Amino acid sequence: MLALSANGVLPKADYAIFADTGWEPRAVYQHLDRLEKEVAAPAGIPILRVSSGNIRSDALDPNHRFASMPLYIRNQDGKQGMTRRQCTGEYKIKPIKRQVRELLGYPYPQRVPKDVFVEQWVGISTDEFHRAKDADVRYMRNRHPLIDLGWSRSDCLRYLTSLGLADTPKSSCLGCPFHGNAQWRRIRDTSPEEWRDVVEFDAAIRAGNARANAGGNRLLGQAFLHRSRVPLSEAPIDHVTAAEWATRQQEIDDRTAVVEELENGVVDGCSPWACRSGDPVQSDLDLTA
Questions:
Q1: What would the pLDDT profile of 13-48 be if each residue is shown by its tens digit?
Q2: What are residue 47's DSSP bridge partners?
Q3: Between vectors from CA 54 to CA 51 and to CA 57, what angle results, nearest 5°?
Q4: Among the residues of 205-266, which ranges form H helices?
Q5: pTM of the full predicted structure?
Q6: Which of 130, 126, 124 shows the shortest CA–CA distance to 144?
Q7: Distance between CA 268 and CA 275 in Å, rounded?
Q8: Each residue of 103-132: pLDDT tens digit?
Q9: What is the rounded CA–CA span in Å between residue 66 and residue 69?
Q10: What ranges do the domains of the chain cover?
Q11: In a designed cystine with 269, which of 23, 115, 170, 255 is the match (CB 3.0 to 4.6 A)?
């Protein structure tokens, strides 16, 4: 959407907002820098980077309030579960809404007048039109430009490829529990330093987040990043699902840049109003006009 706006296909956006969890893959930050320099700045579209902190550091800090990640749990009796997912609201939605209020001139706790709002572009394509939703606050009104254009995910990939942006990475926390095996393999095989980082974090959160433990709310079981509920260093991430094979065939058929593998029919990546939990998907680059 940023490229479409910068190139005049869509109206010029006033701002783009990137919600930074503080623990994105290195490739995401590098790509964001490139977008800012080569796409946004020449078009006069400021990219505002907002944050509520570093999710990795917060999870391991016993003195810091922590919005829980959706960790996979194996209880002492062998039963399985997951912790609540609060991280998207805390590290994505909250800082974006705070920035939008400031742009409107009504920072919290001021009340935003009924007739004051931003038009927020939501990056849902026709493949997931059923996820198009209205905003949950009156001062943000959602619009879905890709659906209006009739663009699918493949159309987006072709357009990015035509601009030399075929290597656009998906934004998500480096150690997001909703990664599929393909994403875990990619980290392991292409970035040893980041792989060591997530393996160390996985081991560090085995007993749950540090703040809860310090407050006497100890986890009655063990927590893991991988759905198999074994240490990440031992997890069966080399297993290739049928969905991955289907996606590889799609990559050939599309004749575009290599499309990152999908698992279980859901796209890797985290967005301000969604993630792999199955909630509505939105682009991490929030555009307001």
A1: 999 999 999 999 999 999 999 999 999 999 999 999
A2: 16
A3: 165
A4: 210-214, 242-254
A5: 0.83
A6: 124
A7: 8
A8: 999 999 999 999 999 999 999 999 999 999
A9: 9
A10: 2-288
A11: 170
